[in-house]
Amino acid sequence: MPKGNPNPSPATRFSADNPGRAKQKGARDRLSAAFLTDFADDYESNGKAVIETVRGQDPVAYMRLAAALLPTKVEISENPLDGLSDEQLDAYLEEAHGRIMERVAKGDPEAIEQARKLELLP
After folding, report:
1. Span 40-79, pLDDT tens digits
2. Average pLDDT score, the chain
């Protein structure tokens, strides 16, 4: 029985007449969308009872699923400081410096180091 790829030529491996299922455009996106739709439908019909059953019978699978559903990347598209005036920014900076100096007065070594980096202390 021969081993290896029956069509090793890169020129013809994924040609129009032999596209290969996994290489079709959007195959992964379609699969993901279909799975999530089916999963959501199942959750809507069985919901909390299934979650409680899985958590009780297989806590490792429960935690793995919870971790898999969390976003892996969070993107912040808006800077909350963009809408502030220079005066407002100066006021926030003075407040922050005041808080650091309060911690310095209490002897906090991290605050002392911060104050030195910010040139608030000699």
Report:
1. 888 888 888 888 888 899 989 888 888 888 888 878 778 8
2. 80
- Give the span between the Cα atoms of 39 and 119, in whole angstroms: 56
Contacts 24+ apart (CB under 8 A), 65-68: none
Q: What pLDDT digit, counting tens, does each position of 31-42 carry?
A: 888 888 888 888
Provide the 3-class DSSP secondary structure of residue 99: helix
SS3 content of the chain, % helix, strand, coil (to 5): 65, 0, 35
The C-alpha angle with vertex 36 and arms to 55 and 22, in degrees rounded to 5, equals 120
Q: Any idea where the domains of the chain sit in the sequence?
A: 24-69, 86-117
CA neighbor of 99 nearest in space, from 88, 110, 83: 110
| Residue 30 tokens, joined | 């379609």
DSSP 22: G
In order, the DSSP letters of 44-58 are HHHHHHHHHHHHHH-
